[in-house]
Amino acid sequence: MSGVTIQKSKIRAEKGMVVLPIEEYKKLLLRAVPTFYLSGKAAERIDRLVKDGFTDLKRGKVKRIKSLADLD
């Protein structure tokens, strides 16, 4: 069996390293959440919703809940 040498400085620079068997990696890829890119009015609408949400969070206007049953 052959070995693999990875420099410690490279691991530190990358803030860690993960080694997975190919099959495990493929399963991980299948379970990954897809990335969607919006443009135009849809993107502007989502950006505004996120910005408003962060503003409300900073002002303390949000209600933290543990379950959807806690909603009034």
Shape type: elongated
Order of helices and strands: HHH
* Number of alpha- plus pi-helical segments: 3
Helix content percent band: 40-55%
Radius of gyration: 21 Å
Taking the alpha carbons of the first and last residues, their distance comes to 62 Å
Average pLDDT: 90
* Quantity of strands, as a count: 0
Q: Based on helices, strands and strand pairing, what is the structural class?
A: mainly alpha
The oligomeric state of the chains shown is single chain
Largest sheet: none
Percent range for β-strand residues: under 5%
Report low-confidence residues grouped into runs of 5 or more.
none
List the main descriptive attributes of the protein structure presented here.
3 helices; mainly alpha; 72 residues
SSE arrangement:
Elements: H1 8-13, H2 22-31, H3 40-59
Describe this structure in words.
- This protein has 72 residues and is mainly alpha-helical.
- It has a domain at 38-72.
- It is built from 3 helices and no strands.
- The mean pLDDT is 90.
